[in-house]
Amino acid sequence: LGHPQGSELGNWALGHWTEEGYDLFENFPDLASALWAAEERKLVPHKFPNHHIPIPEHYLAEDTTVAVETRAIMAWMDKNPFVLGANLQGGEKLVSYPFDTARPLSETAPRPPDYEDDHLELQETPDHAIFRWLAISYASAHLTMTETFRGGCHTQDVTDTMGIVQGAKWHPRAGSMNDFSYLHTNCLELSLYLGCDKFPHESELQQEWENNKESLLTFMEQVHRGIKGLVRDQQGEPIANATIVVGGINHNVKTGRVQGRVVAPAPPPAHLPPRSPLSPAAAGGDYWRILNPGEYRVWARAEGYNPSVKTCSVFYDIGATQCDFVLARSNWKRIREIMAMNGNRPVRRLPPGRPLT
Question: Is it true that domain 7-224 has CATH number 3.10.290.10?
Answer without folding.
Answer: no
